[in-house]
Write a structure and sequence with these properties.
357 residues; mainly beta; Jelly Rolls; eleven-stranded antiparallel sheet; five-stranded mixed sheet; 2 helices; disordered N terminus
């Protein structure tokens, strides 16, 4: 292409004018009129090109009278920069505190998640809504989770998160609720032994999410061997204490002392004792660990006992007393001295439980 001598100055003037008047820069949402109109109720902003048109949309968390809701804004190019249009509003996640605001990756794009919470003395309530901001803020999944407040002390296999959980680089999100606990007592107060939770994995596609539910159990039975050694006698294995037969029992005569040795191939954190003579009474068992700390069945665990906490004992039709003992530390073996009680004592079952690896 060539230009005449007369055309060249005109072209230079046009180029010079363009250099002094560059195209307007896009207006960020935070500096837009749409933002300033509702800034007092905005608690969070997400930004992404949801419809793949080269322009970002924003999803905004708005405070309402009852909780928080998501609104989607779309931008339109304009001579002065661009304008932002509010195109849809989602359902309200009920709660006084905003807890989660995030895009959730699914197979064919992204959804937006908002969760809010409320507290009361007994439980924490979490409400969440999963919306499709590119489809009129349609609700794809919602629920309310009730998380009971734990006791002063909790025995768990480790850190167990609860509620709405987002894991970085993992598609979808998880819900953990409905904790299952055994309520125990100790000298220091109430103790909860966490035995399991409900878990749900939310994945799928934008128009149809998938929810996979499972019940996780943390405790499992641990096979054990039980031996008894009285005074100077040789130890004998007590098969009757692990045979799950409620009619078999080991009898310790009044005043007889000895040691009960419990051994397992995996760590156990709790023991269930069933004691009481078949068809007769259930005398208390006085037990002491190798370190000399004592525990008496039917009583609350002392602060220095090898038992961290114990559950309320209950009787069965055969006269046996069932009692769960949570140990102060996990063990693969335990030697217990049986104290001299002036009554006949019968031990019927010993079961061990450990946390799943």
């Amino acid at each position: 292409m060539c230009f005449s001598q007369r055309a060249v100055p005109i072209l230079l003037l046009l180029l010079e004018a363009c250099a002094h008047n560059p195209p307007p820069k896009p207006t960020p949402f935070s500096k837009s009129e749409a933002f300033h109109k509702s800034s007092s109720t905005i608690y969070g902003i997400l930004e992404r090109d949801l419809d793949e048109d080269g322009l970002s949309e924003v999803v905004v968390a708005n405070k309402t009278d009852h909780g928080f809701a998501l609104s989607t804004y779309r931008q339109h190019p304009a001579a002065s920069g661009n304008t932002w249009e509010r195109i849809c509003d989602g359902e309200v996640a009920v709660g006084s505190e905003l807890e989660v605001l995030s895009f959730i990756e699914v197979e064919d794009g992204a959804l937006a998640l908002i969760a809010a919470k409320d507290d009361n003395p007994d439980e924490e309530l979490q409400s969440f809504v999963l919306i499709d901001p590119a489809a009129g803020c349609a609700t794809r999944f919602k629920d309310q989770l009730r998380l009971p407040k734990p006791a002063d002390a909790v025995i768990t296999p480790g850190a167990v998160p609860a509620g709405v959980i987002i894991v970085e680089h993992e598609p979808g999100f998880r819900l953990v609720d409905e904790p299952r606990v055994l309520h125990l007592t100790a000298a220091e107060g109430k103790v909860d032994l966490l035995t399991g939770v409900r878990t749900r994995l939310v994945t799928g596609k934008r128009r149809e999410v998938a929810v996979d539910e499972a019940a996780l159990s943390f405790l499992r039975p641990i096979p054990i061997a039980v031996h008894w050694q009285a005074s100077e006698a040789d130890p004998i294995e007590l098969f009757e204490l692990v045979d799950d037969d409620a009619t078999t029992e080991f009898v310790a005569k009044p005043g007889v002392t000895g040691t009960l040795k419990i051994a397992a191939d995996a760590p156990f954190v709790a023991l269930e004792l069933v004691h009481g003579c078949y068809g007769g009474s259930a005398a208390a068992l006085e037990l002491a660990s190798e370190q000399g700390t004592r525990f008496v069945t039917g009583e609350a665990a002392a602060a220095d006992s090898f038992v961290a906490a114990n559950g309320k004992s209950f009787g069965d039709e055969a006269g046996g007393r069932h009692e769960l003992l949570a140990l102060r530390s996990a063990a693969t073996s335990l030697t217990l001295s049986v104290g001299p009680v002036a009554a006949e004592r019968c031990l019927r079952d010993v079961r061990a439980f450990g946390f799943r690896p």
